[in-house]
């Protein structure tokens, strides 16, 4: 997924975005299934475009993701939670805190895919065998401009878990902010 | 598609008729022979033309419609079997360009209707089908030029496969119905009213159609239960929108 | 030399990885040498790039055999004369017969034992010519072979006498190449030095006390397989066969086949395209006649033809209208138009109902029917769709798989699926009460499915069409139909609300405990 | 049918009342026949329990007779009319006005049975031979607490018609509100 935005900004808003009933939870099960699918795709595209690894529900509800100012229509909080809950079941999002359900990690790209991107980067910069702290990995200058720069630590965790399973890396330490990782 | 216009139908009628009034016979016979030879000539012309202009037939929708009409007028039904076993030049020639074109289009219409069925309850405007297929072609580099008549002909060609796809008119718009369930009259009337603004409210219906509250509610509930309309409850009165307006984008 | 053929679910030859089907011809019979092969007289001939196969109509599983094209030495067509139908004789290579017979033992079901054919000769009472008795001749069962020189069939008594006459002792081993009778103990021929080992090896087996008659020396005559075409089509079969023999695709076969899933069904040739060459010749021939008839105004572009076309359509329409309105149309008048009409359709060779060339159309539809069955079964498409698909979806999937070349028309597909039960294929086409036409596994009747739905619903569960589609793997259209079928049987009732339609176990007709035992499902 | 209410109020709602398909007109003929029967019994039981002689359709459609609020399911007006029409054919109900079909008389007890109840009451209070106005009969204090108290005038008419035929009474006058009846 080339992160570079092409000349004309790709229209990330689906046709449905300008269709007022899109913001009302449809009573009919079949229609609701189509609505759910449309919202799920839209949320992923929106986050990918804005490179958002997490969505904080309350702010999102006012952002143009869930609120179409032109039509003066917004998705109700309860309905937004229902959409995100459905996406969680499909493994597309993850509640940061299952209880509060206030913020969600958005896997607009699967951890497995991220693992490949990361591994390709490690090879390209020859960091094999060296140890890096998680912080450095996603916020250090050397990863400036990389796609995974600014990745949310929890997302990074699940990505590294995949790499560990594949034997491409080994995490060191337990405290989340001092953890390091050694790539092979 | 053999609507009884073709020669197949001619042969059937002729068997049933009796001797022609004598004084008109001679003229009739002459005229007839002249027509027969003309038909032969014309058929050869069509055949020769079809061979040389296959690409144009495929790309030019208006002519394709006329070509199909010409074929059916002289008894050639472009959509019949393209098994073309004995290598007859015509069926083969048509087989490769026209027949395949309509069958391929029919396949894409079937797939599109099936994909959008959940969002529109199996009722989609022919114009929307045409736009979506053309947009998809542009995206994949093709530059197909498809007319609404082609789409109607493609849906028509699905007839032998049993009920399922039919073309119905809602107001002036041709719609494709891909679900066997028929619409009752109230549902069609409401859908027609919706076409004006894209949505309708109970009070609008009561005003325009002078229906009582119960009848309006039943009609709207029937439409909802068949997933033919989406409801918007953030306006001061519930608005019932038709999905056909999704793809047209509502900004002025 | 005739190897058994493994068949797909729809009784069509299973193709090797890089083998493709060239031509299929219905009602064909097989001859081995001069004599008809019992049980191989009515079937389909399948010509592929590697083999010429015969699949019997009556018992395909038992009587389907094939000749490897690599064993074919030369091909000899026979155009047929009076009663005898046209034939194509395949002369198999001599050494091939040896190797052929040793590699895939010729296990024509009728031959009693797999030993190499030993020739028993019978002397024709009329011309006293000693004819070789075919190895697979079973006295009493297969008809008597006619004499090679005078063509008269001997009485069965002569044949039985020849069979049980003590075969001559192995006085000498004739050399397979120069037929010189060498001393039995020699290993190679005195004159041409050809190895006699194959016969020598046979000599050893003779030491094993077995009730087999002592083996006869291998005759040098080459094996002959004849395809007899009783339903025509031998012309195109021949051209395909010749081109296959020239291209020798089987040589690629020797390369180790890369293990990959069986290729999607090879795009079956439409019978018409007798090779690109054939098409070119018919087009050019056609072109000349067209130009001559056109004479002056050869139409160059669309508009002129359209102009001409318009008034001609008007002419045809008006004439037809007038034609119907005038009651007293003369027989002579109408018949001549009918004749010209039929000429045109004849000329255009379009299938119109009353002129259906019976043989070929049926053959094509049967073949298409088998192809569709294979397509749905071998690629597990039907299984993935829960064993039931709407005919419209079959049309879409089938033609999508053919990627736009030589698509199957809806009317052809309908004819093909209607042939499923007649051809005893494991799929059925059924028009449901609602008018929806579905294709489904043969075993899965409505009764079976409706019962499954009822058991799944049980007592207090309401399901939507989507739930049923997910549960049984059906499409939405099929799920709706199956639920409504269960409803028609009174086992299920529906709840309609703005949420949509939900189906429940039918509490109106069944009490809680009742529906377990088999109450009669009326309704 | 003893009209006395037992200690726990009898459950007049059939168990089908909580079965959602009960409120949908069933397409299968056999199922629909059973559904009709169930509705017919329920309407009679409901009216008997609430001693309703008439049912005004529009109000009934919102009452818990035709609208199960818990399930949020209601019988459609057209289906309710179809049920009542079927009951009319069985002589269980009568449209007050066949044209408007807005209100229906509910014979949760047959006119013949009412005739017996009325006759037994006339004997018990010794009103034989005396003349009573119809109004008095169903609204007067003396019939307070009687089953037929508050009976709808049209129902009363059909009951008295039965008694006249049996020679147990004779109606006087024609105007419905001043009509009187003489019992023998």
From TrEMBL, chains A, D:
GO terms for molecular function: protein homodimerization activity; structural molecule activity. It comes from the Eukaryota. Keywords: Cytoplasm, Protein transport, Transport. One of its GO terms (cellular component) is ESCRT II complex. InterPro entries: ESCRT-II_cplx_Vps25-sub (IPR008570), ESCRT-II_cplx_Vps25-sub_N (IPR014041), WH-like_DNA-bd_sf (IPR036388), WH_DNA-bd_sf (IPR036390). It is found in: Cytoplasm. One of its GO terms (biological process) is macroautophagy. Belongs to the VPS25 family. This is Vacuolar protein-sorting-associated protein 25. The lineage of its organism: Eukaryota, Fungi, Dikarya, Ascomycota, Pezizomycotina.
From TrEMBL, chain B:
One of its GO terms (biological process) is protein transport to vacuole involved in ubiquitin-dependent protein catabolic process via the multivesicular body sorting pathway. Pfam families: EAP30. Gene3D superfamilies: 6.10.140.180, Winged helix-like DNA-binding domain superfamily/Winged helix DNA-binding domain. It comes from the Eukaryota. Keywords: Cytoplasm, Endosome, Membrane, Protein transport, Transport. It is a peripheral membrane protein. One of its GO terms (cellular component) is ESCRT II complex. This is Vacuolar-sorting protein SNF8. It comes from Ascodesmis nigricans. Component of the endosomal sorting complex required for transport II (ESCRT-II), which is required for multivesicular body (MVB) formation and sorting of endosomal cargo proteins into MVBs. Belongs to the SNF8 family.
Automatic annotation (TrEMBL), chain C:
Component of the endosomal sorting complex required for transport II (ESCRT-II). Belongs to the VPS36 family. The keyword Cytoplasm applies. GO terms for cellular component: ESCRT II complex; late endosome membrane. GO terms for biological process: protein transport to vacuole involved in ubiquitin-dependent protein catabolic process via the multivesicular body sorting pathway. It is found in: Cytoplasm; Endosome. SUPFAM superfamilies: PH domain-like (SSF50729), Ran binding protein zinc finger-like (SSF90209), Winged helix' DNA-binding domain (SSF46785). Keywords: Cytoplasm, Endosome, Metal-binding, Protein transport, Transport, Zinc, Zinc-finger. InterPro entries: GLUE_dom, PH-like_dom_sf, Snf8/Vps36, Vps36, Vps36-NZF-N, WH-like_DNA-bd_sf, WH_DNA-bd_sf, Znf_RanBP2. It comes from Ascodesmis nigricans. Component of the ESCRT-II complex (endosomal sorting complex required for transport II), which is required for multivesicular body (MVB) formation and sorting of endosomal cargo proteins into MVBs. Residues 5-257 form the GLUE N-terminal domain. One of its GO terms (molecular function) is zinc ion binding. The keyword Metal-binding applies. This is Vacuolar protein-sorting-associated protein 36.
């Amino acid at each position: 997924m080339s992160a570079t935005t092409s000349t004309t900004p790709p229209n990330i808003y689906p046709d449905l975005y300008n269709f007022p009933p899109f913001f009302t939870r449809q009573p009919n099960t079949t229609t609701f299934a189509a609505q759910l699918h449309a919202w799920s795709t839209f949320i992923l595209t929106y986050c990918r475009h804005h490179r958002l690894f997490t969505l904080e529900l309350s702010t999102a509800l006012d952002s143009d993701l869930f609120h179409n100012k032109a039509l003066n229509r917004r998705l109700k909080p309860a309905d937004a939670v229902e959409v995100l809950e459905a996406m969680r079941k499909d493994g597309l999002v993850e509640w940061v805190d299952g209880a509060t359900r206030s913020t969600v990690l958005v896997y607009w790209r699967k951890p497995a895919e991220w693992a490949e991107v990361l591994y390709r980067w490690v090879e390209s910069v020859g960091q094999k065998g060296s140890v890096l702290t998680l912080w450095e990995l996603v916020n250090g200058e050397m990863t400036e401009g990389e796609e995974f720069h600014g990745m949310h630590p929890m997302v990074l965790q699940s990505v590294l878990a995949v790499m560990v399973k594949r034997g491409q890396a080994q995490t060191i330490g337990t405290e989340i902010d001092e953890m390091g990782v050694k790539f092979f | 598609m053999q609507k009884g216009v073709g020669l197949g139908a001619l042969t059937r009628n002729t068997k049933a008729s009796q001797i022609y009034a004598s004084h008109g016979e001679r003229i009739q016979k002459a005229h007839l022979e002249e027509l027969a030879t003309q038909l032969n000539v014309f058929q050869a012309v069509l055949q020769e033309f079809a061979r040389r202009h296959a690409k144009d037939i495929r790309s030019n929708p208006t002519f394709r419609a006329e070509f199909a009409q010409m074929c059916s007028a002289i008894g050639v039904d472009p959509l019949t079997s393209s098994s073309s076993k004995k290598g007859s030049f015509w069926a083969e020639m048509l087989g490769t360009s026209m027949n395949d074109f309509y069958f391929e289009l029919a396949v894409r219409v079937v797939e599109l209707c099936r994909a959008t069925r959940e969002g529109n309850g199996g009722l989609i405007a022919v114009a929307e089908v045409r736009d979506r297929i053309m947009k998809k072609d542009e995206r994949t580099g093709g530059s197909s030029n498809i007319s609404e008549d082609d789409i109607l002909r493609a849906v028509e060609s699905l007839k032998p496969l049993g009920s399922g796809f039919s073309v119905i008119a809602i107001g002036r718009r041709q719609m494709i119905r891909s679900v066997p369930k028929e619409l009752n009259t109230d549902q069609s009337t409401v859908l027609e009213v919706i076409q004006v603004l894209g949505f309708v409210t109970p009070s609008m219906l009561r005003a325009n159609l002078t229906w009582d509250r119960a009848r309006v509610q039943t009609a709207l509930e029937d439409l909802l239960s068949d997933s033919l309309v989406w409801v918007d409850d953030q306006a001061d009165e519930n608005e019932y929108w038709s999905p056909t307006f999704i793809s047209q984008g509502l900004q002025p | 030399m005739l190897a058994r053929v493994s068949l797909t679910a729809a009784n069509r030859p299973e193709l090797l990885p890089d083998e493709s089907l060239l031509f299929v011809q219905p009602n064909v019979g097989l001859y081995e040498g001069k004599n008809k092969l019992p049980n191989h007289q009515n079937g389909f001939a399948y010509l592929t790039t590697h083999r010429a196969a015969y699949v019997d109509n009556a018992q395909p599983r038992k009587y389907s055999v094939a000749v490897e094209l690599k064993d074919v030495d030369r091909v000899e067509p026979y155009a047929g004369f009076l009663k005898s139908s046209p034939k194509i004789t395949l002369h198999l290579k001599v050494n091939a017969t040896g190797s052929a017979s040793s590699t895939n033992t010729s296990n024509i079901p009728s031959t009693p034992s797999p030993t190499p054919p030993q020739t028993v000769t019978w002397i024709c009472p009329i011309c006293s010519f000693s004819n070789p008795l075919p190895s697979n001749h079973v006295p009493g069962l297969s008809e008597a072979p006619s004499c090679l020189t005078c063509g008269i069939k001997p009485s069965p008594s002569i044949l039985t006498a020849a069979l049980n006459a003590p075969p001559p002792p192995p006085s000498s081993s004739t050399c397979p190449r120069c037929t010189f009778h060498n001393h039995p103990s020699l290993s190679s021929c005195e004159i041409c030095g050809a190895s006699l080992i194959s016969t020598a090896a046979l000599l050893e087996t003779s030491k094993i006390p077995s009730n087999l008659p002592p083996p006869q020396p291998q005759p040098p005559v080459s094996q002959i397989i004849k395809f007899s075409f009783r339903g025509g089509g031998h012309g195109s079969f021949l051209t395909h066969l010749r081109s296959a023999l020239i291209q020798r695709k089987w040589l690629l076969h020797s390369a180790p086949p890369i293990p990959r899933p069986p290729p999607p069904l090879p795009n079956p040739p439409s019978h018409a395209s007798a090779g690109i060459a054939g098409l070119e010749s018919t087009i050019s021939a056609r072109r000349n006649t067209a130009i001559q008839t056109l004479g002056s105004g050869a139409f160059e572009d669309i508009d002129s033809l359209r102009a001409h076309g318009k008034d001609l359509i008007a002419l045809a329409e008006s004439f037809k209208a007038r034609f119907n309105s005038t009651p007293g149309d003369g027989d002579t008048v109408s018949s001549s138009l009918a004749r010209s009409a039929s000429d045109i359709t004849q000329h255009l060779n379009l299938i119109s109902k009353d002129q259906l060339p019976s043989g070929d159309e049926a053959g094509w539809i049967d073949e298409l029917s088998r192809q569709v069955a294979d397509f749905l079964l071998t690629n597990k498409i039907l299984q993935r769709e829960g064993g039931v698909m709407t005919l419209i979806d079959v049309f879409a999937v089938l033609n999508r798989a053919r990627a736009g070349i030589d698509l199957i028309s809806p009317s052809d597909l309908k004819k093909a699926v209607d042939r499923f039960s007649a051809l005893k294929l494991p799929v059925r086409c059924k028009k449901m009460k609602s008018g929806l036409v579905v294709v489904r596994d043969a075993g899965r009747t409505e009764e079976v499915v409706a019962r499954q739905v009822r058991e799944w619903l049980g007592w207090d569960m309401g399901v939507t069409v989507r739930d049923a589609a997910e549960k049984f793997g059906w499409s939405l259209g099929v799920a709706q139909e199956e639920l409504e079928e269960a409803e028609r049987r009174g086992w299920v009732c529906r709840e309609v609300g703005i949420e949509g339609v939900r189906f429940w176990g039918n509490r109106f007709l069944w009490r809680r405990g009742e529906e377990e035992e088999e109450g009669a499902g009326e309704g």
